[in-house]
Amino acid sequence: MVVTKSRTMQLTMPSDREVVLTRVFDAPRALVFEAFTKPEHLRRWFGPRGFTLPVCEIDLRPGGAWNYVLRGPDGGEMGMRGVYREVVPPERIVSTEAYDIPGMGWTPESVVTTTLDERNGKTTLTSRVLYQSIEHRDGHVNAGMEAGASETFDRLAELLAARV
Question: The domain spanning residue 144 has which CATH number?
């Protein structure tokens, strides 16, 4: 089932526990991988417009952890964290992911598999999120996942156009 409204990103839900985000970037995958894995680049594009990433810690290795704090235009913050299960530069990253929702606490962990496939100098990024339950998946989707991810990927595309 396709549920996306974006012109540049596709969001599908192939099963009752999955969301798949797909976006093509006009950049080689080594550059996309670098933008996705280096804090100095992530701070420049991660999150919807008006959001900042004041905390961005990455230990990019199997068993290594990542920790982000996303700050909204109103000053509100949301934590994000996970552990890398697999890192295959520049083509694949598998990690856990959980969010600290203000007033609600940490969400159950999901598993995110991100692959980068390059053809003719363009890179297709596919991010498959496997949730613990349909309720967790639907809660994330209904909280604005499509709009937030689309805008975030637009910001990444702009950074990549400047060649990071």
Answer: 3.30.530.20
